[in-house]
Amino acid sequence: MKVETTAWGTLEIEEEQLLSLPKSLPGFDDITNFALLPAEQEPFYYLQSLDNADLCFLLQNPFYFFPDYQFNLPDDEAEELEITDQTGVEVYCITTVRSSIKESTANLLAPLVVNPAKRVGKQVVLHQSGYQTRQPIWISEPDKPEEGGV
Question: For site-directed labelling of 34, which of 7, 50, 111, 138 has its Cα 20 to 30 A away?
């Protein structure tokens, strides 16, 4: 299917790239149809709205920058997404890119959880998890040892 977008012009969307968010994203109540598209570089993806050509989010695989990121998906959320086995679940975080990579952030508090078999997803708020909506993705470089003799 061909889709007109503001950012990318005309895109050819494959069926396996379609994603339904029946409850939408907070603040975007009438926008439920999306395409999940790989970006030029891993671990990034684009979540392009099919209902609004102007709306596109940058997502990331949170485990790339945060290998210890983990949470338990509540049973009611898993049921809503028709998830019976959590091993096949995909998780993405909305990413905010600033002028400097050191200021770019990921929303770890409310990941987008996707059932790829059903092509359905939901932004799940992880109450009382300790995660932030603006977690910096830049991990500082280790200190370099001083050069010199013994």
Answer: 138
User: Quick one: the chain helix, strand, coil %, rounded to 5?
Assistant: 15, 35, 55
- Residue pair 135/106 in contact by the 8 Å Cβ criterion: yes
pTM for the structure as a whole: 0.87
Whole-number pLDDT of residue 141: 53
Q: Distance (Å, rounded) from C-alpha 108 to C-alpha 126?
A: 8
In a domain, 54, yes or no: yes
DSSP H or E segment with residue 62:
helix 62-65
CATH number reported for the structural domain that contains residue 95 in this entry:
2.30.290.10
What value does the mean pLDDT take over residues 125-135?
A: 94
Residue 68: inside a domain: yes
133: left (phi over 0), alpha (psi -120 to 50) or beta: alpha
